[in-house]
Write a structure and sequence with these properties.
By secondary structure, this protein is mainly alpha-helical. It has seven helices and no strands. Keywords: Hydrolase. This is Alpha/beta hydrolase related protein.
Length: 198
């Protein structure tokens, strides 16, 4: 004999399932609400981590990084991919922070995010065609795979910025529509009240 009857155990399991469902729903809602910020953080960290993984461990110092910038060649150097991602994220997060509801629903946020992402998509695509057209025997399979991951990550994050900006603008438009309906309902009630009671 246990402490609880079968009916009480089923109620406890159902309550635990409902609580777990509620917590997961709230977590997903939080992640969707903060998607622009989380995507900008991922956009600054992932390409930089992939670049450092593709370079040899001895080349992670500040002096070798400056030598990569000094010896920059569009066809061979990969230092500009994380730099483009950081700049793209900085611009997008600044515009997101400066825009409020109406400006997030239309105009500056979606437009600037789309422009930044499309420009970086074009740059990364052109760079990928130059980098992968050169057959370099000195590089290993691991380094080549990390370079491909760097390009794919940058392209996917640029597309992700556009998708998140579009979803954010749709969410803000819905909020404005609900707010406008509420304003009209309240103003209608006030005018009806004024007609009948004044």
């Amino acid at each position: 004999m246990g402490f609880f009857s079968k009916e009480e155990k089923s109620k406890i399991i159902l309550r635990a399932f409902k609580t777990l469902f509620f917590l997961i729903t709230m977590l997903v809602s939080l992640l969707l609400f903060s998607a622009p910020v989380l995507l900008a953080i991922a956009d600054t960290l992932l390409p930089s981590a992939l670049l450092s993984a593709s370079l040899s461990p001895s080349s992670l110092s500040l002096s070798t990084l400056s030598s990569h910038f000094n010896d920059y060649d569009f066809r061979y150097s990969l230092v500009d991919i994380p730099l483009i991602s950081i700049i793209r994220s900085a611009v997008i997060i600044c515009v997101y922070g400066l825009c409020d509801g109406p400006r997030r629903s239309r105009g500056p946020y979606l437009g600037i995010t789309t422009i930044c992402s499309v420009l970086s998509l074009i740059f990364v695509s052109l760079k990928a065609s130059y980098v992968f057209s050169v057959a370099d025997i000195d590089r290993g399979v691991y380094v080549r795979a990390m370079e491909m991951a760097l390009f794919i990550c940058s392209l996917a994050l640029a597309v992700g910025h556009i998708v998140v900006a579009y979803r954010t603008s749709c969410r803000e438009r819905k909020k404005l529509l609900v707010y406008k309906i509420d304003i009209e309902a309240v103003s209608l009630l006030i005018s009806v009240y004024d007609i009948f009671f004044n």
